Amino acid sequence: MRAVRLLEWKSDPQLVEVPEPTAGPGQVVVRIGGAGACHSDIHLMRDYDLGMLPWDPPFTLGHENAGWVHELGAGVVGLELDQPVAVYGPWGCGACERCRLGLENYCEDLSSAPVPRGGGGLGLDGGMAELMLVPDARHLVPLPDGLSPVAASPYIDAGLTSYHAVRRALPKLIPGSTALVIGVGGLGHLAVQILKAVTATRVIASDVRPEALRLAIDCGADQVVAPGDDAVAEVREATGGRGADVVLDFVGLDSTMAFGAGAARILGDFSVVGIGGGSLAFSGKAVPFELSIQHPYWGSRPELVEVLNLASRRLVHAEYTAFPLDQALEVYRSVEEGRVIGRAVITPNLR
């Protein structure tokens, strides 16, 4: 079968032929319907080298996957052949306290995980292939009615990561509050919708691209702000001088982190979700009093169930474009160059 594989660090992926996987005891093979092309894959291609992560190439890319059950290994119960499923992305040890709660994104026994801080498409073979081996059936979440594997794919990382960041800040997203979303890409455009769907907060969105600002308005943002010297002042003016109660930075550059800290309210929350490589100078003048700063990673398996429910009820809608597997390499170039609005989804089994 064909697969898009990263063969070595600091290289472009290649579309190559690989053997089809088979399911061993407790395992499941999934026929992939949709695999998201995530910008974090660009960091795998460009930013990492030998020894920088606890795993190395080669492996098949694609950590945002949904499809249909193709083969069930011995002992697997609760799933049926051809059943549509989402593949929960972070694969932990399955036994530590965090994993037992479904928080495999925060597994604390990394030595027992299949790949520390990874999973399918992150150290092990992912979903940019016709078939994907899932090493434990617990990583599969049945799709709710009305949500196809292609449409579900963006919610497995982009949707789940955004939902987790919003959900942990819910106590501060009360009526009269303001949330600032920095970066209206694959994650940010879903974060705007999730904020509007599950909270009563006012949403301000910011992005360097005019087309992304238009998307933010289409997704329900109450106001948009272009980055620049006046951006902090615009947010403070819109909030009566107080600043944003919750800031979600989906970029993570020096400039966006400085913007977020400058626009945040005293006692606010600032979640840096993007992995742009930036840093934030911490001092009494750099951040408001008691600003809580977080670096969340992905989300829990129960939260994936919840965000898929929102999608199936049409309370959120992922803006995406579908591409066949043989266009995946060009799609990654478009992602790297910032030419993708919303999400790009590779569809290995749709012709």
Gist?
This protein has 351 residues and is α/β, with parallel strands linked by helices. The protein is 25% helix and 24% strand.
Topology at a glance:
Layout: E1 2-6, E2 14-17, E3 28-36, H1 39-46, E4 59-60, E5 65-72, E6 84-87, H2 97-100, E7 119-120, E8 123-124, E9 131-134, E10 140-142, H3 149-152, H4 158-168, E11 178-182, H5 188-198, E12 202-206, H6 210-218, E13 223-225, H7 231-238, E14 244-249, H8 254-263, E15 264-272, E16 292-294, H9 301-312, E17 320-324, H10 328-336, E18 343-347
Parallel strand pairs: 7-8, 11-12, 11-14, 12-13, 14-15, 15-16, 17-18
Antiparallel strand pairs: 1-2, 1-4, 3-5, 3-9, 3-18, 5-6, 6-10
Helix pairs in contact: 4-5, 4-9, 7-8
Number of DSSP E strands: 18
User: Which regions contain 5 or more consecutive residues with pLDDT less than 50?
Assistant: none
Return the CATH class of the largest domain. Answer: Alpha Beta
Please indicate the percent range of residues in DSSP E strands (runs of 2 or more).
15-25%
Fraction in helix: 10-25%
Shape: globular
CATH topology of the largest domain: Quinone Oxidoreductase, Chain A, domain 1
> Describe the biggest sheet?
7 strands, mixed
Number of domain units: 2
